């Protein structure tokens, strides 16, 4: 039994000042047990552990090839910065490399290092490919997708695709039928096609605004289609580079914190500083914390952590702390179908939490009741 006393407990509907009781790695009602360790938080905020549904790596390591050492290093880096639940995202790779990575990442998901795999590609629009290698993009291939689902052994959780490609809507339906979240992204779809994808079962818009047909007042495209659809969760890369604070504010106002999922889209350079890196075989230069394709202007992921995304939402965007916490934890947890276990500091859920300092930075992190 552990009791966190004098805590500002950040809940989905507001902040409650009091005690948080933890037993056997789970948050429990105050009356469920007694005794044990008492930690006085001196009035500091406690937020639920962050859930990052879109991240490629960190600490110099990438999820791309599924190599266990690198996956562990990247996940540990983000865990230390508050991400207690993470998907591992892969950018478009050659078919065999993709298959090997999915199989290897499935092992690490069984172990609990990651919460599953997100395939960002390979069925993306060439005109909206961002930092993906255009020569590796393919049109939707149901047979290949089914093979990847098999290799993922239940741990392939999400696939980002452009629904306007030939067979795109069939792939959305196939994903929805097999329990893989179809996410609309890297897309040039007009609004009608994006709406058709959501009607076919797609439930996420991948990094809203980035790498998709922009919002136009006479053709709202995937942005309007996603924001207007109450079934859809929209990802936002809140790093101050991909989307400016005014537009993040707009998304929160339009979709609400229960449908905005803060993500990092971080790549290997997160936590490493400026330098030269690789993302899915593409050369990436990081200068002043901005990751760009070498010699170009395409943004190649971010270098932030979820702690940065959360803090920026409060400090730069003006989102109330409980709504920023919701967007960083409960909303992605719900989108991934794991909100009965994680996403909020409520009895019965895993004791995954973050104690913040007075400046809303991470002081320390607990996962399943153990301080990391
Ligand atoms: Zn990404």
Q: Can you give a write-up of this model?
A:
- The protein folds into 2 domains: 2-47 and 349-371, Urease, subunit C, domain 1 (Roll), CATH 2.30.40.10; 50-335, TIM Barrel (Alpha-Beta Barrel).
- The protein has helices spanning 68-80, 95-111, 142-152, 168-177, 191-199, 221-227, 245-255, 306-317, 321-335, and strands at residues 2-11, 14-23, 26-28, 37-40, 45-48, 50-52, 57-58, 61-62, 83-86, 88-91, 117-120, 156-161, 181-184, 204-205, 233-237, 260-263, 275-279, 282-287, 290-293, 353-356, 362-367, 370-371.
- The longest helix has 17 residues, at 95-111.
- It is of the alpha/beta class.
- α2 runs parallel beside α3, α5 (191-199) packs across α6 (221-227) and α8 crosses α9 (321-335).
- The chain starts with a strand and ends with a strand.
- The model has no long low-confidence stretch (mean pLDDT 96).
- The strands form 5 sheets. Strands 1, 2, 3, 4, 5, 20, 21 and 22 form an 8-stranded mixed beta sheet that branches. It has a 7-stranded parallel beta sheet with strand order 10-11-12-13-14-15-16.
- Residues 54, 56, 89, 120, 265, 301 line the site of zinc ion (ZN).
